[in-house]
Structures are given as C-alpha cells and as structure tokens.
Design brief:
The chain is α+β, with helices and mostly antiparallel strands. It has 24 helices and 16 strands.
Length: 687
C-alpha cells in the first residue's frame, strides 16, 4: 500500500471520527434540551452568586480553599467549575448549560494533550474512546465525573516527557515539582475518582525499565506525597472503605460476576467494547507494556474494591466508576497501535471499534425511544439507581417561572426552598438554581425570593424564613407574585405545605387581593398578590368558651406530647382550654418558662382580652431551641423548623377587639430544651 493511499485513508478516518463524535454529542445534547439533572447546576449557581457578590479574586480564594473542608467532592468544592461558569454567567450571558459546555471543552483539551504528549496514535485513541457510551454522556453531563481525567492526564504527561523537557536538569526538576503539585491540585478540584492518581507514579517507578534509581526514588516520593494530599491532608473515605472491604470480602466473587454481567446488560455500567479493547491491549506488544498492564489492572481492582466495600452485589456498578478504566484502555490500545502489529490483530481491533460505535448509536436510539427512561433520565450511562433522576414537569415549571420573572418587573416569591424533599442532597431538582441561572444574578437578586428553612444545600441562594416573608410581603403595602408549590409529594423534610400559605393569605381578608396567573404550571399555583394596607396584621377575634372562661383567660395552659414533630402538632386536635392544666397565671411583661426532656413536643395556649374597640399591638418574646411555631387566632405569625440552638425571638402583631388566642407549638429533638414566653402591651391605654 502506497504512502499516498495510507495518507488518504488516514484523512478519511479523521473526517469520519470528527463527524461521528460530533454527531453523537450533538444528538445527545439536543435531545435533552433543558431537561438536565439538578446536579449539573449547583456548582454553576454557587459560583455565579459568589462571584456576583464578592468579585473574582475573593471567589478564587474561597473555592480554592473549600475543597479542603469536604470529605466528598461535588462540583462547588472546586476552583475550576464554579469560578469559570460564574464568570461566564456574570460577564458573558446567563445560561443553564455553561457547566456542560465547559466540561466538554476541558475533557477534549485533556485527552488531546495526553494523547499528543504520550505519542500514541490519536486516531486510534479517539476511535477507541468513541466506543464508550459513558464517556460520551459524561463529557456533556453537568456533574463533572469526567474531571477525573484531568489529574491522570497531567500525571501521564509528566511521566513521559520528563526528564527530557529542557537541556537544564535543575530547571527540569523545578518544572516537574510544579507539575506534580498541579496534579495534586487537579485531584482535589475534580471528581473523587481522580484521587486515585498516586497509583500513576507508583506504577511508573516499578515498571518503566529506562528509569534510573534516583528517578524511581523520586516517583515513589511523589506517590507518597500525592497519597498524603489526597487521602490524609484532605479528609477521605478511603479508611472506612478499606475496613468495609475486608468485612464484605465474601461478596467479591459475586461483585466480579455482576461487573461482567452489567457490562453486557448495559443498564448502569458502560458498553463492553472498550473494556475488551483494554483487556486485549495487555497482550499486545507495545512501549512500556508492563506500565500499561499494571495501570489497567490497578483501575480494575479499584472498581472491585469500591464495589465490594459497598456490598454492591445488586448490579448497580456505576458507569462513572469505569471512566478511568475506559481512559486507560483507550490509551493502551492507541499505544499498542503504533507497535508492529500483524494484520489479523489490527483487523480485530478495527472490528471491535466498529462494533462499539454501532453500540453507541444503538444505545442513543434505544434510550430516546424508551418513553419511561427518557422521561426520568437525562442521558444514557450517567445514572445509578439512586440519583440523577429528572422531574420533567418540575423542570418545565421552573422554565416557565423563569421566563415570567424575566418578562415582568417586580418581586417574585417561590414557596420552594432547600427544605423541600425534591431538593434533597441525594437527587436535588435544583428548582431555585434553574431559575437563578436562567435569568442571571442581576435580575435574580433584585426580583426573586425563595422561602425555606435551610439557607444552603450545596449552593447557597438567598432564602427567606416564613416570618420574613410575612413581614416583608404580607404585612407591607404593594404587589408581588407568589408561586405556591403544591404538597402532592410526601415530604421527608419539614416544610410548609400548600394549605399553610393559603391559610395565611385568607387571614388578611379585604387587605389582600389575589389574581391567578395563567402560566399552565403543574406543580405551582401562581398568584399576583396586592396588599392594599400597610400595617401589622390585625387578627380576627376568637370565640371564648362559655364554660369556665376564667380558667382559659389570662392563664397559660400546656399540653405535652412525646416524640411528636411540630409539623404534626399543628394538625393535632388540642383539648379545649378548660381541660388543660394551667401552667402559670398570665401576667403582662412577665415570662413563664418550662424545661422539657429530649424528644418532647408541647403546645402552650393563652387567651387574653383586648378591652378596646380597636386593634392594639402586642409583642411576644420567645426563647426556645429547635422547632417553634407561633399562631395568633389561627394564623402563623412565626415559624422555625429543624434543629437550632436556644435563641430569643420577638414577634409583633395586632390583637383584635375582644378575645385573642395565642398558641406556641414547640418541639425539641435530641437534646433537652426549654421554652420561655412573655407578652407585652405596646401603647395600650391605661386600664
């Protein structure tokens, strides 16, 4: 075969690869549209908010140091992703998918640089990599699992280009020290799988024959330093996993069987072709054969180690765990391709690559043709059994709300915060982040407010408490838009249900007017709210029991329940006041207090008279830990959920003429706690 024929064939292969890879990426990217997993938005939202509030230099410092405070890595514990996407959102254009585009760009750069520096056949490398459905999906997935490639690429480059970078050995040494430091930082600021990078210099020290004893000692030192940085200096789960591995050692054969079965079942693990190519490469003649063989086996054993430590015998061998094994497999086969391989071996490799690429096309088609999987998953081979589900109706609602906020100036309040179950830490829907990123930080900071008890999950957007919402919106004159999240989901976390908000709105009577928005939302009710008067909320009078009224008037009474949460207490049937034992004679400006054992819930009730013919202001002073809700004549005027240290709170409201009833719902969790309450008259006429 002539040199011109070979050159033409290579040009054809390059053109085919470019078309195939581009077509699959565009096909998968376009098919999902806005329906992306919430995991891919958290770091972008956090970086955008922090940079908007604090500037670039402080953001660089903040996110650089943040990785050293977390055991488990996620995207906002990186200096790479939140800072770059935050910069793009702040200074280029607001958008949901900057993170996905950045991931693809960095992945392409890392793989190209590594293949070039290692002098492997780049066409064979990308052809092999294109047989992995998981690599395709992960390279455009928002949560950057594929960032594990970055430290490994840098480490492999350092292994193969030093000590021949310059003609000055001392300068080479400086460059290499800086390079290995960069490898360590990339491991800390990327997906946890990249923390396995200490194995690269360790394997090189023992398997590359051309190295001198001094260089072997240097690489061993580098491996120890990287291990210390990744697993000791930064808290890690390596130690408990090692213990669990030996405890679950009996399931290792089952894990191995499930691993192979999962490859061919094509559910969560990747397609089997690149695994087969990597296994084949171990038996082919190539440069540094023992190095690549040891590296491949090290990654394979790591997968078995982690799966066994998890007791992972159900087949949920996550595709993200295979990414580095795929990467090493593609590099090994591309390294072998430049060796003297006979035509039969080359034909086998080409057939495996062709079959793998057909498998990628088939997987993409089958995934999009499966209505149930397409509705609940973003892309094939990025999911495990417990996370990365997508709620299409909720995402669609978030998009409509974001457009509504962008087109209508004014304040917009959403009753969905980090305390809602759909925003949990396993599979967050990221509704606040979607809306924030769609409109950009400037519009979002001015117009958008979320109600929730948690101020942070992984990102930390602005959250309002229920009390702040009452004071800033329902008790102040003006108009705003309110999006009430429905309570059709069974919530695991504590939060306010749809009925609580309508109960609060109904208490305002003529001072508040509602007009429904026509947005065709499935999970929210949208209202334009206009408050016509600005004042503390006047309360409707309550009916005082006719029997034994003196016991319920001017007397605090208490009923206690064991191990009951406040959210349940609010709906409990409380005995009538005359049947409750009086806790203390009610006296204005004098607090009563009571201590409770842990895991106790209580309701304290007092009914008092406003003898005037007009509303008069009252201040309630409260000190308690954990959960507290204050209701005045059936309306919530203060609420705080979840665990909190003992803090003092002051709540003001208007008492209506006649009888008024105050109920304080209190619940502590794991510690003993106390409750202290006092009422004060403000500007009442002398009796």
């Amino acid at each position: 075969m002539s040199i011109y024929t070979l050159r033409s064939l290579r040009i054809f292969c390059v053109a085919y690869l470019a078309f195939f890879i581009g077509a699959i990426l565009v096909w998968r990217w376009a098919s999902r549209g806005i329906y992306v997993s919430g995991w891919g938005l958290l770091e972008s939202a956090e970086g955008t908010r922090f940079l908007f509030e604090n500037g670039l230099l402080k953001s660089l410092s903040h996110f650089f140091l943040k990785s050293r405070a977390f055991q488990y890595w996620n995207g906002d514990n990186s200096v790479i992703y939140p800072v770059i996407t935050g910069f793009l959102n702040n200074y280029v254009a607001a958008g949901l998918l900057w993170e996905h585009g950045l991931n693809l760009t960095l992945t392409a750069a890392a793989t190209f640089a590594c293949a070039t520096a290692l002098r492997v056949d780049r066409v064979a490398f990308y052809a092999a990599l294109a047989t992995s459905s998981a690599v395709f999906s992960s390279s455009i997935f928002g949560f950057p699992h594929v960032s594990a490639f970055f430290p490994w690429s840098a480490a492999l480059i350092l292994i193969h280009i030093f000590p021949r970078a310059t003609n000055w050995p001392k300068l080479n040494f400086v460059y290499e020290v800086l390079g290995w430091y960069l490898v360590g930082e990339l491991a800390l600021h990327g997906y946890d799988l990249g923390k396995t990078v200490p194995i690269v210099p360790l394997v090189a020290a023992f398997t590359i024959a051309s190295y001198s004893a001094r260089r072997r000692a240097g690489l061993l030192s580098v491996s120890i330093a990287l291990y210390y940085l990744c697993f000791v200096y930064v808290p890690s789960s390596a130690s408990p996993r090692t213990t669990l591995f030996f405890e679950h050692l009996d399931v290792l054969p089952t894990v191995l069987y499930r691993f192979v079965a999962s490859l061919f079942q094509q559910q969560y693990a990747d397609l089997p072709f690149l695994f087969a190519l990597g296994l084949l490469a171990l038996f082919l003649p190539q440069r540094n054969r023992f190095f690549w063989t040891s590296l491949w086996l090290a990654q394979f054993c790591f997968i078995l180690f982690v799966s066994t430590a998890d007791g992972d015998v159900t087949g949920d061998l996550k595709s993200r765990r295979l990414l580095l094994l795929n990467y090493v497999s593609a590099l090994a086969i591309a390294n072998a391709w430049v060796s003297q391989l006979n035509s039969k071996v080359r034909a086998i490799i080409v057939l495996l690559i062709a079959a793998g690429q057909v498998g990628v096309v088939t997987t993409t088609w089958n995934f999009l043709a499966d209505p149930e999987r397409y509705k609940t998953r973003e892309l094939p081979h990025v999911n495990s059994q417990g996370d990365n589900f997508i709620n299409r109706s909720l995402i669609s609602d978030a998009e409509k709300i974001a457009q509504h906020i962008s087109s209508l100036p004014g304040k917009h309040v959403l009753t969905i915060g980090y305390s809602n179950s759909v925003e949990n830490t396993t599979d967050p829907a990221a509704v606040p982040e979607r809306i924030y990123l769609s409109n950009g930080p400037e519009i979002s900071e001015q117009r958008t407010f979320f109600i929730g008890d948690h101020t942070c999950r992984y990102s930390c957007l602005r959250m309002l408490s229920f009390q702040t919402f009452m004071e800033q919106f329902l008790k102040q004159k003006g108009a705003f838009y309110l999006y009430i999240y429905s309570d059709k989901w069974e919530w695991d976390e504590k939060g306010f249900r749809q009925a609580d908000y309508y109960r609060a709105l109904d208490s305002f009577g003529g001072k508040l007017q509602r007009q429904r928005c026509d947005l065709a939302l499935e999970n929210f009710d949208c209202w334009k709210i206009e408050v016509s008067e600005s004042d503390l909320l006047p309360q409707s009078p309550v009916q005082v029991p006719t029997e034994s009224p003196t016991q319920s008037l001017n007397t605090w009474t208490l009923v206690s329940f064991d191990k009951v949460e406040v959210s349940e207490l609010r709906h409990k049937e409380v005995p009538p006041p005359e049947s409750l034992p009086p806790l203390a004679a009610f006296s204005w400006d004098e607090a009563f207090s009571k201590e409770f054992a842990k895991e106790t819930s209580s309701i304290a009730t007092v009914t008092f008279l406003n003898p005037s013919d007009r509303p008069l202001p009252v201040e309630l002073k409260l000190r308690a830990n954990d959960e507290v809700i204050v209701e005045v004549n059936g309306l919530i005027v203060f609420a705080r959920a979840n665990n909190h240290p003992a803090t003092s709170t002051s709540v003001r409201f208007l008492s209506s003429p006649g009888a008024n009833r105050v109920q304080v719902f209190y619940s502590n969790h794991s510690n003993e706690g106390g409750l202290s309450i006092a009422l004060s008259k403000i500007g009442w006429p002398r009796s």
